[in-house]
Amino acid sequence: MDGRTRHYGDFYGISNALGRSADDRPLLVVWGNCQAEALRVLLDSDPAMPLRTVRIPPVHELESSDVPHVDRLVRRASVLLTQPIRSGYRSLPLGVPDLADALPPDAVVVRWPVLRYAGLHPFQVIVRHPGAPAAVPSLVPYHDLRTIRAAACGLDRDEDWDRSVCAEGLRHAAQASLDELRRRESRDTDIAASDLFEDAGRAATHTINHATNVVLAALAQRILDQLGTGCTVRDPGRELLGGIRAPVEQRVLDALGLDGAPRLEWSVEGTTYSPDSVHRAHLQWYATHPEFVDAALTRHSELIRTLGIEP
Description:
Layout: H1 3-7, E1 27-31, H2 34-43, E2 52-53, H3 67-74, E3 77-82, H4 96-102, E4 108-111, E5 124-125, E6 143-144, H5 145-153, H6 167-188, H7 194-200, E7 205-207, E8 210-211, H8 213-226, E9 244-245, H9 250-256, E10 266-268, E11 271-273, H10 275-288, H11 290-299, H12 301-307
Parallel strand pairs: 1-2, 1-3, 3-4
Antiparallel strand pairs: 5-6, 7-8, 9-10, 10-11
């Protein structure tokens, strides 16, 4: 038995083989990206939780061979707690409409948002390209618009790549990020999270798509309350999505009126990288992946204008 199968033993239906006792509580399926597992841990943190949960691989990692295991779980679920995922995601029946069709008639569907907030990291973006959808640059899997600009302008790796951005531009970028999250919440979800990022301030995010425990725990409590569990989220004893932590600049904190210390370096699973070293590594990566520069300039053109860092 491989390590992945063992790790997701309940999902693959091998709990008995691993010596785990049966759990006859109603099943709560938490469905989504890597944020889903972090949220599941928090939902399951109170010993009095009346619903049981199952550790499930992130939806973007599932293959066609996993679909029967998904179907088996969903057909037994009392609650489907899901991020918005389109029907036929990755050409598999993994979207919310697909799963809803297989739920028992009395099951409840609660939709929660994909968490993304760029206020603390205004230059950081995620860039996908259809020719290589899983490709990410070296050292850290995020792109910096200033490095994108440097690549587009043909700057040498040792030339100054940072840009002066006015406080108003940083505030507008943060507000635009919240506005987009609110738009998606109102369109696609039953539970809101945008206000939690504002409330958390400096402690809101590690990266644009990795919220801190402060935000995740507040969202989990909001979900527990909506489900009427009577439970309280407990401290998990570790930072659930803190494996990668991006720099937070003092000028950003000042522009947003936030207290707290800046973060000067990247931290990736305990290894630190300076912003300059990441910039140089990414410039080298863009030299062999120029299509990502064009994709970033197109996809994030409005944010580039907001920040005033046009090439």
